[in-house]
Structure formats: C-alpha cells, structure tokens
Specification:
By secondary structure, the protein is of the alpha/beta class. It contains 18 helices and 18 strands. The structure holds 5'-O-[(L-methionyl)-sulphamoyl]adenosine.
C-alpha cells in the first residue's frame, strides 16, 4: 500500500439536534465505526468523522419549546450524541459541529467561490417546504399535494426572494461522472433511483432563507441565512480542520479529502448523490469516491417513528443487553443497504445462539480442557489439520475480507459464523475429552490447538463488530494486546503462535434468559 492510497476517510451523517439520538442514528454510526475499525485493522490511516447538524427552523423551534437559547439547546443535544457514542464504543476521529466558528468561515468561503464562479443568482421562490425534511417539495411528491409522505406533516407554502444555486448547469457533468464511476452510488439499486431523478432534469434550488434566523449569514447580505443543507454538507470538510489550523478550505482538504465513503440513510440520498457533487464541481473540488445509502429500521415490521410511538431507546437496549450485543444484532441481522427489522425475540435469539452458545461455549470448553489437562499450555503440535478446517479457515478469511471491502457487513459475519459452526461440529466429532481419557494426548492437543487458533483468528476478525468481546477472547487466549491499528498481519492459519498459554475460561457472553415482552 503506498502512503497516498492508505488513507481512508469515512463519514456518518451529521445528525439533527432537534431531539436526542434514537436507534436509527445509532445504527448508522455503529456501521461506520465497524467499517472504520476494520480499515484500521488493515493498516489504513483512517479518519472517521461524525457530528451534528445544528441550524435551521426545526432546531430553532425545538430550542424555543425547551425555553433554551438555540446554542444552549444545540450544546445540550450534541452532548447527548457524544454520550451515546461513548456508550456504544464509537471510536471517531473528528466531531463536526455546524455551529462552530471554523465551519461558518468555511461555508462563507465556499459560498463566495461558487458565487464568483457565477453559479449563485437571486430570484423569487414560491413553493412548498417540509420542515422536518428541511427540503423543498413539489406537489407531486406530497400526499394529496399537501402532506409529506415521510413525516406525515403538512408542507408549508413560502414565497421569498432567495439566492439560488445553478444545479441545472451540472446535469451533463453529473451524468458523465456516474457513467465514469459506476461505484459512486451504492448499493446499486439506489443508483437507479438517483438516475431516475437526474433524468427528470435537475432544477436550480434556493440556498438561502430570509425567514430563518438560526443559520449562517450570507456574506454581504445579513438579511438572509444559508439553507441548512448547503451549510451542513460542508461539515464533512470543515470538520477535518484541526483547532489550530486557519479555517480555509485548502487547509481542511489537504489530508483526507476526497472522502472515501459517505454512509447515509436512503432518505438523504438526493442531497449526497446530486446536490453535493454538483456543489463540489462548482467549487472545483474533488468529489467523494462513494456514497452508500443504507435502509431504514423497522420495529416488529412497522416503520419506526415518533408519530407511531414505536421508537427504541438505545440507552434501554444497552442497559439491558450491553454494548456489544446492540452493535452485533443490527450488523448481523440486517443486510447493510436494505431495510431491516428489530424484534426483541430475534434480538435475544441472536445473542444467545451466536454469541453465548456457538462462540462463547466453544471458547469456554476448549480453554477448560487446556487448563484442566495441560496446565494451560498447548504447543504447536506435530500433526496438522486434524479438524480438517485449514482450507475453510483460509477461505473464510478471504470471504470476510472481500465482503468487508464491499461493505457487506452482514455477509462478512455470515461467513465467520459458518466457520464457528463448522469448528463446533469438528470439535464435537473429535471429542477431545475422550481422546484425553483414552490417552491419545497428541491428537487431543492438536484438536485443542487448532480450535484455539481458529478462535484467535475469529477474535481479530470480529473486533470491528464487538470490540469488547473480542478483547476478552484475546485475553483468555493469552495473546498479546490486540493492535487496533494493524492486527491484520496476524490473521491467517497458524500465523505467529507457536503455543498458547491460556487464561481461565470465563463466559464471554452471558446467556439472556428469555422473558416474553408484555
Ligand atoms: N442532518 C441531516 C444529515 C446532514 S449530513 C450532512 C439528517 N439528519 S437526521 O438526524 O435526520 O438523520 C440522520 C441519519 O439517520 C440519516 O441518514 C437517516 O437516514 C438516519 N435515520 C433516521 N431514522 C432512521 C431509521 N429509522 N432507520 C435507519 N436510519 C434512519 O438527515
């Protein structure tokens, strides 16, 4: 890997601070963290940026309801996001806030560049706007020409003189970019959706508001503030600045830009796959390499939302089951990119069968046999491949790697758990406890050594998903500290370890006793 291409810049969306974080925001952030951790394991120089989107009417109104100044409200809710990320073991490198001074300076500089380019002009706007989406709507997009289908709220009519961005100018360039970069939008079914919008013809859109005071002032026109999306997308650039750096776009982009991948939900695809690239083209800046739109979470088959009242509180879930269980469930259960469902019964089944039984018990049984019969030490034996899993281990590692590189997080775990299942089977068939009794110690040692070796590999591979559990496994296996920044070099069949001096085997994942909800 050359120095240049070993950089990996990944972003989560910048979350609105109108309310405390919910499981939907947690889902996106867990997925980003998992990908960032995987890339670090592979030795990449990773920058993972998350943050908060703090301007606009919706947030201004929430502050009023709370009887707080807008900035106080933003600080409070941003703190809630940061608390939750800590609880969920999210290891981000940058936290971008759109109310920071450096962000304001970057947005104004960007506005001026695009203005000079001739891509911003003043005109009257008359139309409909959904405040919850912070998006302009055509009648066609609304139910009965009035109601936002996502939020079930009435779109507001408004008429103002605004600054517009000349999006239509970039229609052909954008189509060309899609053609030349077939992987720009992923998964591929989302790409067709975007192509559909573009084919309908790109329309210029307002990038300022007169009636919204909680925003970044337009340079040289204090009567207007910048439209929240034109402002927020630039948080992916301003958030890269170190606090000591001069707030200039050229400083912000010098290390990690262009972004390797923006991870977003499908509802904000148009902003990221259409508006954002055109804004960057106008400013003559490189485009992100990929935009990945994941699906929505539903609960017991129904779309989660405040209006339906079936929201899952991430804190309750973490308190009851622990951080790794929460991280694991969503990544193991839902194909990343598709919609996915949460059900309590599924959650408990997953944790019990995958973590407590298949993985945890195997480790526990193997360690107990090593401790009881071999004083905790197993050396690399003369026999090889007694479990007949050498090839499967190697192919699992390869499959895992290619799934992870394609952001197929669930599929990566599927392939790992096929290996866990196969190891359980081979272990049970060989019955090492009987081999010990029958004085076939070499065979028993070989079986235990290979089981531990497979578990050692698995403990590294699962670390992006369940970092705490992975460390517990690693410690019980008596391995050195897991190097989060380059452990991949130790992945492989019989790599590195000549012997295992194991610790006491304690259950890594307690079984959850089934209690029926209600
Ligand atoms: N502030 C904008 C993003 C600006 S990025 C420059 C925004 N914020 S949001 O808080 O409303 O949503 C953030 C992300 O959470 C979106 O990607 C959205 O898709 C995701 N989710 C919100 N509800 C969700 C579910 N129920 N399920 C999965 N993700 C969902 O949009």
């Amino acid at each position: 890997m050359s120095r240049e291409n070993n950089k990996f810049y990944i972003t989560s969306p910048l979350y609105y601070v109108n309310d405390v974080p919910h499981i939907g925001s947690a889902y996106t952030t867990i997925a980003c963290d998992c990908i960032a951790r995987y890339k670090r394991l592979r030795g990449y120089d990773v920058c993972f940026l998350t943050g908060t989107d703090e301007h606009g009417q919706k947030i201004f109104k929430s502050a009023l309801e709370q009887k707080l100044l807008p900035q106080e409200h933003c600080d409070f809710i941003t703190g809630k996001f940061q608390e939750l990320w800590k609880l969920l073991n999210i290891k981000y490198n940058k936290f971008s806030r759109t109310t920071s001074k450096k962000h304001e300076l970057i947005v104004q500089e960007f506005f001026n560049v695009v203005f000079k380019r001739g891509d911003i002009y003043e005109a009257d706007y008359e139309g409909l706007y959904c405040e919850a989406c912070e998006d302009f709507k055509s009648e066609k997009e609304l139910l009965d020409g009035k109601i936002c289908p996502i939020h079930k709220l009435k779109a507001q009519e408004y008429k103002e003189k605004n600054y517009f961005f000349a999006l239509s100018k970039y229609q052909d360039k954008l189509v060309k970019h899609f053609e030349e970069n077939p992987d720009f939008i992923q998964p591929s079914h989302r790409k067709n959706e975007v192509l559909g919008w573009v084919k309908e013809g790109l329309k210029d859109f307002p990038i300022s508001r007169q009636s919204v005071s909680w925003g970044i002032p337009i340079p040289n026109d204090s009567k207007q503030t910048i439209y929240v999306w034109f402002d927020a997308l630039l948080g992916y650039i301003s958030g890269l600045l170190d606090d000591t750096e001069n707030s200039k776009v050229e400083n912000a982009i010098k290390k990690y830009w262009p972004c390797s991948v923006h991870i977003i939900g499908k509802d904000i695809l148009r902003f990221h796959a259409v508006y954002w690239p055109c804004m960057l083209m106008s400013a003559n800046l490189p485009l992100p390499k990929k935009v990945f739109g994941h699906g929505f979470l539903t609960k017991d088959g129904e779309k989660m939302g405040k209006t339906t009242g079936n929201i899952i509180n991430p804190h309750e879930l973490i308190n009851e089951f622990g951080t790794d269980a929460v991280r694991f469930y969503f990544l193991r259960e839902i194909s990343f990119g598709k919609d996915g469902d949460f059900s309590r019964d599924n959650f408990i089944n997953r944790i019990n069968s995958d973590l407590a039984n298949n993985l945890g018990n195997l480790l526990n049984r193997a360690l107990n046999l090593v401790n009881k019969n071999f004083n905790g030490v197993i050396e690399e034996p003369g026999l090889d491949n007694i479990l007949s899993l050498k090839e499967k281990t190697v192919s699992t590692i390869n499959n895992f790697e290619s799934h992870m590189d394609n952001l197929e997080l669930k599929e990566a775990l599927d392939s790992l758990w096929q290996l866990v299942d196969a190891t359980n089977k081979a272990f049970n068939n060989l019955e090492p406890w009987k081999l010990i009794k029958n004085n076939e110690k070499d065979k028993a040692k070989c079986c235990l050594y290979e089981t531990l070796e497979i578990l050692r590999n698995i403990s590294i591979l699962v670390s992006p998903f369940i970092p705490e559990t992975s460390l517990k496994m690693y410690n019980q296996l008596g391995c050195d500290r897991l190097d989060e920044n380059n452990e991949w070099k130790k992945v492989g069949w019989k790599k590195l370890k000549a012997s295992f001096t194991v610790k006491e085997g304690k259950p890594i994942f307690p079984r959850v006793e089934e209690q029926k909800s209600n």
